[in-house]
Specification:
The protein has two domains: about 325 residues, TIM Barrel (Alpha-Beta Barrel); about 45 residues, no CATH class. Strands 1, 2, 3, 4, 5 and 6 form a six-stranded parallel β-sheet that branches. A three-stranded parallel β-sheet has the order 7-8-9. The protein is an alpha/beta fold.
Length: about 400
């Protein structure tokens, strides 16, 4: 039973050497025994924008679908609920995306279950179902209304990313603070403070991915619960405004939170951006034509990556670069504060080998090859997030 793995590993650490089993597990055995959690997948955006259906075979169209999650050994998926910060009626869009997952759950009760807390999560995993929760990506989706925040929580949202690139009026984003460094007002407003307190009261995790630095530090001072960065990587390795600096990583560890590394090459490989620029410039005429026809820029890029796959593969970084970000966090603050937040289906290219959600076992393989113990791998794959989820829950 997967839910016993973490407990058993902790107990085994107390045994004398003679009591410990000597058999070495394969990476697949470790992967299959662990509870594998991905805290950020954007497939619900595509269910609304493109009409994709998660319980169909979407191979070649998306990174994710129900069967491929099972093939990749995924146990828990936090589904991002997202729309652009300038979208009208963002709260309605959020509910429409949630509806799309609820329909899949209703059709597949033996394969996937929406869960409200860690106890229900472990039950679903033990029943060999994917445990599903929502994470709302962007505070604009509550439309400045704490009642809407609570309503999203009641529908299954267990974290809120305070900002996306286009931020709400009550918190500045990384994009705000870097694009407009002379902003007079940065961080949380009085209403932003109310949002943080409400989330703590609800037991809803605060997600600082996309948040500006001032917003981040305001949160650290205010929160009485561990926070997360649901899909962020390391600034010292890749200088994206979306990544976390060393002092932020240390602050999250001190807070008892955790950082889930993002798989997007732009956030893990400093050399990727100029390569991507050259690729898109090469196909600029076609790209411009697609945009003029009404295609969104992100979907245009996604189309070009798929159409010119051989070219695109030449600029993708190796999987080892993603592992470097995990290693960096572990070296800086320890193994208890890192996990996986892929951003699958919210990114249009990935590291080599991680073509889709079936590639999760290769991360475990790479961690084994780096010398991580089974206990530490179990933490990285999902145990650390479970700890933070439980620490945020309101006990009745």
């Amino acid at each position: 039973m997967k839910y016993l793995v973490i407990l058993l590993l902790l107990l085994s650490a107390c045994k004398s050497p003679s009591e410990k089993k000597t058999k070495t597990k394969t990476y697949l055995e470790i992967h299959n025994d662990a509870i594998v959690i991905d805290t950020h997948n954007d497939i619900l955006m595509k269910t609304v924008d493109q009409g994709v259906v998660l319980d169909q075979d979407l191979t070649g169209k998306t990174h994710s679908d129900l069967e491929r999650w099972k093939t990749g050994g995924l146990d828990v998926q936090i589904f991002s609920v997202y729309c652009d910060g300038n979208t009208e009626n963002a709260y309605a869009v959020a509910n429409r995306e949630m509806d799309s997952l609820d329909a899949v759950v209703a059709r597949n009760p033996n394969k996937i279950a929406k869960v409200a807390n860690s106890e229900e999560l472990l039950k679903a995993v033990n029943e060999h179902k994917i445990a599903a929760m929502f994470g709302v990506e962007g505070g604009h989706m509550i439309e400045g209304d704490l009642e809407k925040l609570e309503a999203l929580y009641n529908r299954g949202a267990r974290y809120l990313s305070l900002t996306h690139n286009a931020a709400p009026a009550w918190a500045t984003s990384a994009a705000d603070e870097t694009t407009h460094p002379d902003l007079e007002e940065k961080g949380l407003t009085d209403f932003g403070v109310q949002v943080i307190k409400k989330m703590n009261d609800l037991g809803m995790m605060i997600d600082v991915s996309h948040s500006g630095e001032q917003t981040f530090w305001d949160v650290i001072k205010l929160t009485n619960k561990p926070i997360i960065a649901s899909h962020s990587s390391v600034y010292s390795l890749t200088s994206s405004r979306r990544n976390l600096k060393d002092d932020q990583i240390k602050a999250i560890a001190k807070n008892g939170g955790t950082i889930m590394v993002n798989f997007h090459p732009n956030f893990i490989d400093n050399s990727f951006k100029p390569k991507e620029k050259a690729f898109l410039e090469k196909h600029a005429i076609e790209g411009d034509s697609l945009i003029k026809s009404g295609m969104d820029e992100w979907y245009m890029q996604d189309y070009l990556y798929k159409k010119y796959k051989d070219e695109a593969d030449q600029i993708r970084p190796p999987l080892s670069i993603l592992i470097d970000h995990i290693n960096y966090i572990v070296a800086l603050v320890g193994v208890d504060y890192v996990g996986l937040g892929s951003d699958f289906d919210g990114i249009n290219t990935t590291p080599l080998q991680l073509d889709d959600v079936t590639g999760y076992p290769l991360i475990t393989k790479a961690l084994v090859e780096k010398g991580y113990s089974e206990e530490d791998i179990v933490k990285i794959l999902g145990g650390n997030f479970l700890r933070v989820l439980e620490a945020n829950e309101i006990k009745k």
